[in-house]
Write a structure and sequence with these properties.
It is built from 7 helices and no strands. It is an all-alpha fold and 178 residues long.
């Protein structure tokens, strides 16, 4: 079964922020019923968890006859009308007010200097790659090796990182002058 992703899905990892000034959504008849039953059931069963109370309320709603549901449905219809009228006058804020656009990085800007660990990983990765071995496994192995490595093993990579930092600082200074 295909899964359709919405604009607020896991694909982007970001949710659209809700406007606090937006009208509250209309409640359903069941929600009005649950609001009237939650208090009495909680008081008569203080040892029960809220999830258990919610299950009891759901069972009561299913067993409730149509005649008994009508007052709650009338409340829901009134709330639905209220929501519709409030939405007619509601004007959502513009997109530019909510989130400023992220500043684009200049493609000609100098690349940042690599860390000692990144130099170590680039050196070790080719020796650990075998058919069938995942990159996550390799990264985990490299990380464990780096943690276990002595200062003598890390020294050449620390020197490379220091040299790369000098390179970056020089390129950054030249870039900002130009």
């Amino acid at each position: 079964m295909a899964h359709i992703l919405s604009s607020t899905s896991k694909k982007t990892g970001k949710r659209k922020k809700k406007d606090p000034a937006a009208p509250k959504r209309a409640l359903s008849a069941y929600m009005y019923f649950a609001a009237t039953r939650r208090g009495p059931l909680g008081e008569s069963n203080p040892e029960m968890k809220m999830t258990e109370i919610a299950c009891l309320i759901g069972k009561e709603w299913q067993e409730l006859g149509d005649a008994s549901k009508t007052p709650f449905q009338a409340q829901a219809n009134g709330d639905k009308t209220r929501y519709a009228t409030q939405m007619e006058t509601y004007v959502p804020p513009s997109v530019t007010e909510e989130s400023p656009k992220k500043k684009k990085k200049d493609p000609n800007a100098p690349k940042r200097g690599l860390t000692a660990y990144m130099f170590f990983a680039a050196d070790r990765r080719p020796g650990l790659q075998y058919p069938g071995r995942k990159m996550t496994e390799i990264a985990s192995m490299i990380g464990k090796e780096w943690q276990a490595a002595s200062d003598q093993v890390k020294a050449p990579f620390v020197d490379l990182a220091a040299a790369d930092k000098v390179r970056y600082d020089q390129e950054k200074a030249a870039y900002s002058v130009a």
